[in-house]
Amino acid sequence: MKLGKCLTKITDINKLYLEKVINKGDIVVDATMGNGYDTKYLAEKVGEEGFVYSFDIQETALKSTKKRLDKENLSDRVKLILDGHENMDKYVEGEVSCVLFNLGYLPRADHNIITKPETTIKAIKHSLNLLKPHGVISIAIYTGHEGGMEEKNSVYEFVKNLDQNEFNVLESGFINQINNPPQLVLIEKKKEYIK
């Protein structure tokens, strides 16, 4: 991927960061399955020995993601879960190297069904507990819909108060784009921190 080409979408920029985070054999989480593009990407990255837990509350998301995975013969390394990401702690076993969030609504679906601040923060808290040392939580935040700015503010308020001795928090975004460009927040868990 050439650098210039990948500076157009936040999801492509995200993959630049995650390239060194996710390895073959890792356990990872797609907290917002959507149409399955990130689930497919994660399944390819973790390889046959790895595993992906993927969450969504909409059956249409599961159906389109299953179709995408079946087409690429990746279904055997992914568990598709029809439940909110705030319940990930009930499903995910083992430490994870990465948790991906794409906040907002499912493209080409009901735009009234959106991620919500209270469940997103709960999911981020679970993600922090699941992360292995040097693991990363990636949060793409879309604000161009009703409720989007409120969710962004909640996420920022939460992550800016994370202990810098335990976590690194990075913000990335387009500063010259109009129409509410998405923001990317990355949280890295530092190696085991002993208080």
| DSSP helix fraction | 25-40%
Distance, first to last CA: 41 Å
Tally of strands: 7
Instruction: Please report the number of helical segments.
Output: 5
Order of strands, main sheet, comes to 3-2-1-4-5-7-6
N to C succession of SSEs: HEHEHEEHEHEE
Question: Mind summarizing the main beta sheet?
Answer: 7 strands, mixed
Mean pLDDT, rounded to whole units?
88
Low-confidence stretches: none
Q: What is the overall shape?
A: globular
What assembly state would you assign to the polypeptide chains in this entry?
Answer: single chain
Backbone structural class: alpha/beta
Radius of gyration, whole Å: 16 Å
Bin the strand percentage: 15-25%
Key words describing this protein structure:
single chain
